[in-house]
Amino acid sequence: MLNLIGLIVTSYLIGAIPSALIVGRIFKKIDIRNYGSGNLGSTNAFRVLGAPLGILVQGMDISKGLIAVLFITNLFYSHLPFTNYTPFEDITVLKIIAGISAVLGHTFSVFVNFKGGKGINTALGMLISLAPVDVGISVGFFIVTVLFSGYVSLGSIVASFFFPLIMFTRENIFKVEIYGYNTLIFFSIAISLLLIYNHRDNIKRLLYGNENRFDKLWIIRIFRVRAPLAK
Predict the structure, then answer these.
(1) In angstroms, rounded to a whole number, what is the distance separating the alpha carbons of residues 130 and 70?
(2) What is the pLDDT of residue 231?
(3) Residue 94 CB partners (closer than 8 Å, separation 6+)
(4) Does residue 170 register a pLDDT over 80?
(5) CB atoms inside a 10 Å sphere around CB 176
(6) pLDDT tens-digit profile of 61-91?
(7) Could you point out which of 25, 124, 147, 225 has its C-alpha 20 to 30 Å from the C-alpha of 83?
């Protein structure tokens, strides 16, 4: 039980590291929470700090999920203190627990008054090792959505929404055997709902037309808004 608690706490603390805040203070001498949307995710980092530092923040956030799943789990690995009813080995169950803890740490960071980022990149790092094919297809939906809309938040919401649907479709329609599917599908739904919930403010701004758009990423513009004719 102590090992499990250590795994959860350590993974949470890894996820709670405010990458955007650290990068902003080191390279730009600013508190990124006072600029842009004020969010500590990579999207605001790209907008406020620029592309190179935004990529650095994104890489750091993704690595938090990977570190929790691939390294912290092995550090605290032992027999589970509860009966494992899943088809997974104990180590895989611990990876899921570690990954969720890291995402919660990123979203509710103890280092910044429990106000972190949306958790997309940290979740991506976690899911790459658990469901790489489904993640890859979801990333495809993200890219297409951003290219057609210019909204990174909308791309994240769409990718989160489709992630469990992709897993369901591959297993039940295309008959692709996904190991541990009956456990992973519920886990994927839970993480999807969490990520969409974290974007609730973005959803409101999208509905009211107030969401910030990355015009440079809005490459495919099928529907253009025409300026009103002068009277």
Answers:
(1) 10
(2) 43
(3) 4, 7, 73, 76, 77, 80
(4) yes
(5) 12
(6) 999 999 999 999 988 887 788 888 877 788 8
(7) 124
